[in-house]
Fold this protein.
Amino acid sequence: MKKILLLLFLISNLTFGQTKGKIQLDKNVVLNWEIQNFDKTKHTFQYCKESNWKYLCKIDNQEWFGSDFGMEFPKNELTKLNLIIGTENYDLETSKMYNPNFSGYLSSSQFKLVDKGNYKILYSFHSDGAGSYSVHWKIKNGKAERIILSRDEIYFEWQNE
């Protein structure tokens, strides 16, 4: 019976083009997330040309993350990331975050919450096999602010700490 319910859940998510999940990072820390299939009809695109090579460089007039050199459209996008720490609830910014991983499901290994004394930092790593990027949110005084969204390797160092 459990297998049938799981199969129905997966089919319904594929049908509607979205997946949702919950990650327990710690006893009192939960991440709720939602990934949706990328819908080309809901976005605008800008192409760039370099040495006779045309590539997708902007989505909705903004640089986007989740692919190497815009070789093709994203397959999906992270549309919701909600962090709950005890009784505090934070909706985290997810704009420009495409192809958050290969499977279409987020996992706890992609995140790390670090207490810095009077604030916290939530680190995350995203990659679909290419186009890796790291995102950092600062949690302070009841507010969450995305402070890093980058492909630069220096922002991946948190994974080794």
